[in-house]
Structure formats: structure tokens, C-alpha cells
Amino acid sequence: MSTDSVRRRNESAWLLPNPRTQVRTPWKLREQMRRFDDREELDAVIVGVGAGGGVLSQRLARRGWRVAALDAGPFWDPDEDWVSDEAGSHALYWTEPRLIGGRDPVPLGSNNSGRGVGGSTVHYAGYTPRFHPSDFATATRDGVGADWPIGYEALRPHYADLEEELPVAGQAWPWGDPHGYPHSPHPVSGGGEIFLAGCRRLGIPARVGPVAITNGVMGNRPHCIYRGFCLQGCKVNAKASTLVTHIPDALARGAEIRDSSMVTRVEIGADGRASGVVYRRGGVERRQRARMVILCCYSIETPRLLLNSACGRFPDGLCNDFDLVGRYLMVQGAPQTAGRFAEEVRMYKAPPPEVSTEAFYETDPAKDYRRGFSVQTVSPLPITWSEHVAAQGHWGEVLREYMRDYVHWVTLGALCEFLPLPDNRVTLAGESDQHGLPVAHFSYSQCDNDRKLLAAATDVMTHILEAAGAEETVTIQRYAHLMGGARMGADERSGVVDANLRSFAVDNLFICDGSVAPTQGSANPALTIMALAARLADHLAPRR
Length: 544
Ligand SMILES: Cc1cc2nc3c(=O)[nH]c(=O)nc-3n(C[C@H](O)[C@H](O)[C@H](O)COP(=O)(O)OP(=O)(O)OC[C@H]3O[C@@H](n4cnc5c(N)ncnc54)[C@H](O)[C@@H]3O)c2cc1C
Ligand code: SF4
Prior knowledge:
The structure is a single chain. By secondary structure, the chain is an alpha/beta fold. It has one domain: FAD/NAD(P)-binding domain (3-Layer(bba) Sandwich), CATH 3.50.50.60. 25% of the residues lie in helices and 17% in strands. The strands form five sheets. The protein has a six-stranded antiparallel beta sheet, covered by helices on one side. A five-stranded parallel beta sheet has the order 5-2-1-9-19. A three-stranded mixed beta sheet has the order 3-16-15. Strand 7 and strand 8 form a beta hairpin. Helix 4 packs parallel to helix 15. The longest helix has 20 residues. The chain is globular, with a radius of gyration of 22 Å. Bound molecules: flavin-adenine dinucleotide (FAD) and iron/sulfur cluster. Flavin-adenine dinucleotide (FAD) binds next to helix 4, strand 6, helix 11 and helix 15. The site of iron/sulfur cluster has 13 residues, from loops.
């Protein structure tokens, strides 16, 4: 990888302070940040600064767009705000009230959405696989799910660019569209070695990576120190989040990042076009005018904002003429199986993302289910481990004994491709939040295919651990990630946005976050969301 070519298109890693100064936040850039007036009509206002909004802010600022990106949460300072402690990280999550329902309700909060500049990438694990070409055409190839209006080829160059910018470390990847990574694989811990050994014995191919964690220095970003607090926010800037990989460059190129700004409504003018957004900052209601509005609030909050932006022209919610907003929301089934080993393994002594296999990703015609799953190391810290144990019904003395035994356990996690179903959706609840806005109600029910995938993935994880010598295994059922809710489609009857992420209903309203995905594969989603943002910036460039 030529770092010069990365630096020429994204200087973020070089704009962070040198770690020898003991300061990790680019304070000067933040102080000198351009600040726009609310009354000024910007080229674009971006709502939400996570995976999608962070990349888009940087790309548009680079092209000279006058752009402000508003986020409901704070502008994090890794030194002050984050701690290497599991319980101390709860402020990172979106914990505003939300209601859940359906036959298989999905707990919301720390496990699926973040809040603040960097969004969920601040506390994501950092696994960054690409989607497979098959993910874009599951209806045609497998008779389930939906086809995207774009193919894998449309994202391939952006995947490669972003893998360099994050940068991603890992072994050459044999699955999907085979490719290599710019940084070599990290050394693996005891947990990773056990996963690799179990796979070797069963003949299952597995690889180290792909993780968005520097293996060597990148600009002023240091090497990972392998302390395992990636899900609490990486204090040293080794793990990629858009807070460190894209926002510094966006600031240097003239974007404004306006934190603590909760957008409550998209405003539609008499001409039927978006004229800007209404937001609350410091207890005061304000308006930001813009020629274009781009929503990047992720799968629950983007549909909620559209529904809360109902107006005379859109009485059932913005862009909701065909009752599609909030529908086809997906989570990945994410069972975790833990195995006990006689020797001390200490799974926490490494980044949780280490090793994975995508050998079960595609449809296997011999099976009675469609699509598949991936398996990865997950390595929960003690509080999460205690939840794992308590979910087995253990309490009191037995729970304490499992906790004392923590250093002997290794945990693997699967990501199962749950299918997009119309009734898995966000609607508005009767309850309101602190701003007086109706909160989201998220209903979820699994289909037969989903359940079969869960069972198959659990079997595979158990076999891998047993093949590596586990004396006992336990499984916990959980969910991970969110995708869909305002999906792309070929036309307004099949999607909320088109192939270029422009809403069918409002000419100058775009959506660029996880909610636009028609299917989710069994890959972790952040890299694909970033790639969609990079592609959108290329598409929008000529407009200025
Ligand atoms: C614990 C955890 C681990 C994960 N691990 C991985 C992983 O290893 N690999 C991977 O690929 N993915 C992982 N993910 C998922 C990944 O982080 C998300 O899929 C991705 O960040 C979503 O990108 P986004 O741009 O759609 O939204 P986000 O990154 O969530 O950003 C949305 C932003 O919008 C803001 N916002 C929302 N509503 C409003 C509003 N009304 N006004 C203003 N701002 C608003 C929020 O504050 C937030 O900052 C993980 C997620 C979690 C929670
Ligand atoms: S293990 Fe590495 S990437 Fe994870 S938080 Fe620690 S230094 Fe950051």
C-alpha cells in the first residue's frame, strides 16, 4: 500500500496529534473548524455522523461542498471520555427510549447503535469484511430476499479505497470476490489459536482478519496495543472509526461538524423539495437551510425521522406514499457459543475481532435453508460474560463459579443472514422522548429460514470448539447489527431510495446509512455502508 496515495485523498491519520504528545484529539482542527450560519443555504446538510455520514462529510468537503454534519451526540475526546472499563462505556450508545415487539423482540441499545460523532463505529468491534457478489442478487440466485438495484461491481473500487484508509489488516481473503488487505494480519491470541486449531481439525478454512486496526503505524495513528477494549472506544486511535479516519480530513477541508444537535424534522417547501432541517441544540429549536438533505441516522432513527417529518404533502410520513418506510428492517441472528478449556486462555487479552470464516456464507443446495452465516471470535469482557452465563439460568454461587473460571473460556459468534420481511418494521409509538417526539417501535419476528440458520450456525461453532478440545460448551441467543428500513429499490413500489440513494419522493433528499440495504449478507455491515457513502459522493460531485 502506498501511504502517499492514501494521504493525498484522505489526510486524517496525519492530522491527528503525534502520540508522543500524549494527546490524541486534534483540538486545533476542532477549534478552527468552519462554522456556518443557520440562515446560510448550504450545499448539503448531513444528519448523523457515523459510518455513512462520516465518510460522506469528508468526501463532500474534499470536493469543495459547503457542508454541515449534525449529530445528536457529543464530539468525543478519547482521552477524557473513554475508559478501559466495560461499565464505564455506556454513554457511547443510543439509549434513548425505544419500544420493541413482535414474536422475537430485539433488545436495542449497546448492541446495535451508537450516538455521537463517529456513530456506531466508535464502539464497533472493527471487523470489516466486504459483502459477497451474491448478496446483491439473492432473489435471482436463491429465490429469497431481494435484489439490489446495484451490483457488487459498483462498490468494489470503494471497498479497496476504504480498506486502505481505515486501514484493514488481514490474510488474503478467499471468499466472495477474493482480495488482499493493505496491512498484514495481526498476531492472534489464545482464543484465536483455538478457533484456528478447531477449524484445521475439521477442514474448515479460516483466516486472520479482516479488522480495521492498524498493524504498524499509519500517519500519527499507533500500533494496536492488544488490550481488548475495542467495544469501549479505542483510546489509542489504533482502531478505525470515522471519528479518526475521516472527520479530521473533513474539518481540514472546511466541513462543519455540529455535535449535540438532535434533528427533529426534515422541512419540505411549497415546491415539494427539502429546504433544510429543524434541530434542537442546547434546549433551543433551530433550523439549518440547505439545497440538499442527506440522512445518515442508521436503521431505526432514519425511518423514525422520516415518519416524524409527516407534513401536508406526506401525511403518513416523508417518502412513505407506498408504506415502505421502516419496513424490511433486518438484524443478523448472532448466537454465541463458548467453550471451556483445561488450560487458561484469557480470551480478553486481544481485540475481540481476530479470526473468522465465511465458508458457510453462501446457499448450500444440500441444506434445507437458503443463504448462510459467518463465524468469528468475539471474546466478551466480564460483564458481558456474566450475561452469557446468567442466560443459561445460572445464578448465585454457580454464576460466581463460572465468573472465577472466566480465564478458561473462548467465545465464538456467528452472524446469520436473517431475511428481509415486510412486517419487521419501525413505526411510531404512542410514547414521546425528551424532545416531545414519538419514539420508535420496532417489531421483529423470525421466519423458518432464520431459525434453521441459527441452529446450523450453533452446530458449527460447537463442533469447532469441541474439535479444539473444549470440555463443555454453552450457547446464548442474541442479535447483532441493523440493516434496512428505508431500502434501495428499482422503483418507488419496491424501495424508498433509488440506486443512487436519492429518495423517490423528494428530489433533493438522500439517505446514506445502513437503512438503505435491501439484504445484509452475513458480513458485518460498516465497510459496505462506508462504500455506499463514497459512491454517493462520486455520484453527487457534478452537482456543485
Ligand atoms: C457493539 C457493536 C459492535 C459492532 N461491530 C461491528 C463490526 O465489528 N463490524 C461492522 O462492520 N459493524 C459493526 N457494528 C455495526 C456498525 O457499527 C454499524 O452498522 C454502522 O456504524 C452503521 O452506520 P450508519 O452510518 O448507518 O449509522 P451510525 O454509525 O450508527 O451513525 C448514526 C449517527 O446518527 C446519529 N443520529 C441518529 N439520529 C439522529 C438525529 N435525529 N439527529 C442527529 N443525529 C442523529 C447518531 O448519534 C449516530 O452518531 C457494530 C455495532 C455495535 C453497536
Ligand atoms: S485492542 Fe487495539 S484496537 Fe482494540 S482498543 Fe486496544 S489498542 Fe485499540
